[in-house]
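Lab notebook, bench 4. The sequencing result for the construct came back, and we need a structural model before the next group meeting so we can plan mutations. Quick request posted to the team channel:

Model the 3D structure of this chain.
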Amino acid sequence: MSAIVQIKDVRKAYDDGFEALKGVNLDIEEGEILALLGPNGAGKTTLISTICGIVNPTSGSITVGGHDVVEGYREARKLIGLVPQDINLQPLEFVMNNVNFSRGLFGKPRNDALTEEVLRDLSLWDKRNNRINELSGGMKRRVLIAKALIHEPRVLFLDEPTAGVDVELRKDMWAVVERLRKDGVTIILTTHYIEEAEAIADRIGVINKGEILLVEEKEALMQRLGRKEMRIELAEGVERVPGALSGYDLSLEGNGHTLVYSYDTRGERTGITSLLKDMQAAGLVLRDVQTSQSSLEEIFVSLVKENA
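Done. Here's the predicted structure in token form:
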């Protein structure tokens, strides 16, 4: 795959001296889903706004499909769909007119079949003749998503698209995302629901204090930074971890019936074989063993803490 979005040494500073972006470099590959994670105020929305041409960078360059977002704004913007955090819609306009108007803004001819498809995908078809001010908050967010999709963008930005909305919308949204992925659309997602990023993203980017901390394939990241945990259920409970096992990273849970062993997947040796041998020597009898991998949320929290 080739990069459809190229960001080179982008900085954004405001008049009061605050630097929201600090030399960001990032290539986003065509057809991928990139989840951009970071705490509040990390620079996620500023970066998206800069790529979309809403905010001009102080320095550096950004291209979308080979078009500079400043010098070639119109051509770059035609390739972009944006679902912003804030709901800003004309309250007295009808849903269908609102969506069709957005398509016309990008110079695209009216396409009733596509409009119906998008509205049905987002469970809005029955609301097509309603005014915006007659809709619930969740329905208004669906309209925002429809407006972002109606001109058939090649790059779609979803800035916290499911924050504070119902489960049904979240399911509809991810069904649409899966269809767009199959069509080769590049999707950049910011979300507070890290389990969503873990479920659908190809790559994970972490941003904090205006700097990209890493961008990596999701599976490789979880393998490289994740810790595994082995939970050992004992046939008989113990009051404390035996002294003979003090050299291992062990904790005791479940009223003394479960030993929890944490180990680094990057290590040459996990220590599991010697642990089990030493447990047997200590007279402990195993009833069951389970292992689990660190979640993406745990990895994200640890990365941000390290760079706090």
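DSSP finds ten helices and 14 strands in the chain.
Will bring this to the meeting.
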